[in-house]
UniProtKB/TrEMBL annotation:
Top enzyme category: oxidoreductase
The keyword Oxidoreductase is assigned to this record: yes
Provenance organism: Knufia fluminis
Site (Lowers pKa of active site Tyr): 90
Function: Catalyzes the initial reaction in the xylose utilization pathway by reducing D-xylose into xylitol. Xylose is a major component of hemicelluloses such as xylan. Most fungi utilize D-xylose via three enzymatic reactions, xylose reductase (XR), xylitol dehydrogenase (XDH), and xylulokinase, to form xylulose 5-phosphate, which enters pentose phosphate pathway.
EC number, as in UniProt: 1.1.1.307
InterPro entries membership: AKR, Aldo/ket_reductase_CS, NAD(P)_OxRdtase_dom_sf, NADP_OxRdtase_dom
Alphabetical list of Pfam families matching this protein: Aldo_ket_red
Protein name stated in the entry: D-xylose reductase [NAD(P)H]
Binding site residues for substrate: 122
NADP-dependent oxidoreductase domain span: 31-275
Catalytic reaction list: xylitol + NAD(+) = D-xylose + NADH + H(+); xylitol + NADP(+) = D-xylose + NADPH + H(+)
Residues of the signal peptide: none
């Protein structure tokens, strides 16, 4: 069968008329210097989206690398503009409206990109009152054109239901959660997909902890791809937005080259069956 459409150029349409690239470079656990370099490698190889956060302490370097890439005619051979690049950041902690609102403004200033494409509440921690107040701050940042779209991260179904029940002016466009074949989180992803909330899959490579798993090895051989490409492709074929992270130029390039094969239905099922609730980082989805 001919491989389907997914590539670094694939974008998913959004209700507000904008669109979101379906593969983003993750920059967690990168120093500022590493992030600046990785962002340039990624943009040069066709990535159009970067996933940062206040907690990563590299928003400034990511923004600088994006600006420098856009201005450098030898790198930016396609004449890309700011609006062609998608930059995400996240609120470090939920508190009250005033603090959240000013923290968002600070991120916009720090990245130096004029606006942030997607701004997320990084986790549900902090309790109901601060979650709802922080969400209101994201909505107002969108109204004030500091942010294009808003979303949440690490939200379990109960947090999404709480937000929906509060009748906000807008619902989150995205819920960014840990999702990979070793932690499929189908209860949350099904809820999101039923409610029109896009799932961003963090740790899509399972932090490189299962690259040698026999099923991953067998299917990588079958599809003549790397284990990382297999996992990125699995995520895309589920309709998720994977955020693979690497500091290496070769790996960044390879992880985005997923247009030459397609995982068939039975192998997708086989990969779904690898679920072992592997948590690679934190797990706030059940927080009070
Ligand atoms: N919202 C949240 O709470 C949250 C939490 C975690 C992550 N995230 C986001 O999701 C992104 C991805 O998650 P993650 O960074 O935790 O994990 P990941 O992308 O699943 O895995 C990254 C690890 O895989 C290695 N790697 C990358 N490509 C590889 C390849 N082709 N072959 C072998 N190893 C490879 C990387 O090492 P090298 O760098 O040395 O290549 C790194 O150790 C983060 O960067 C961040 O943007 C969000």
């Amino acid at each position: 069968m001919a491989p389907t459409k997914y590539s670094l150029a694939t974008r998913l349409p959004l209700q507000n008329g904008l669109s979101i690239p379906q593969i983003h470079l993750g920059v967690y656990l990168m120093s500022g210097r590493e992030a600046g370099q990785a962002v340039k490698y990624a943009l040069a190889s066709g990535y159009r989206a970067i996933d940062s956060a206040q907690m990563y302490h590299n928003e400034a370097e990511c923004g600088k690398a994006i600006r420098e890439f856009l201005e450098d005619k030898t790198l930016n051979t396609q004449g890309l503009k700011r609006e062609d690049i998608f930059f995400t950041s996240k609120l470090a902690s939920n508190s009250d409206y005033v603090r959240a609102r000013s923290a968002i403004k600070k991120s916009v200033e720090t990245c130096g990109l004029g606006y942030i494409d997607l701004f997320l509440l990084h986790s549900p921690y902090g309790g109901k009152t601060s979650r709802l107040a922080s969400w209101k701050a994201v909505e107002d940042a969108v109204k004030d054109s500091e942010v294009r779209i808003g979303g949440v991260s690490n939200y379990g179904v109960k947090h999404l239901e709480e937000l929906i029940a509060s009748k906000p002016e807008t619902l989150p466009t995205v819920n960014q959660i840990e999702v990979h074949p070793f932690n499929t989180r189908t209860t949350i992803t099904d809820f999101c997909q039923k409610n029109g909330i896009l799932v961003e899959a963090y740790a899509p490579l399972a932090r490189a902890l299962r690259m040698k798993h026999p099923t991953i090895a067998e299917l990588s051989k079958k599809y003549q791809c790397t284990p990382a490409q297999l996992m990125v492709r699995w995520s895309l074929q589920h309709g998720f937005i994977p955020l693979p992270k690497s500091v290496s130029k070769e790996r960044i390039e390879a992880n985005g080259k997923i247009d030459f094969f397609e995982i068939d239905k039975s192998d997708m099922k086989k990969m779904d069956g690898l679920d072992e609730y592997l948590v690679t980082d934190w797990d706030p989805v059940d927080a009070d």
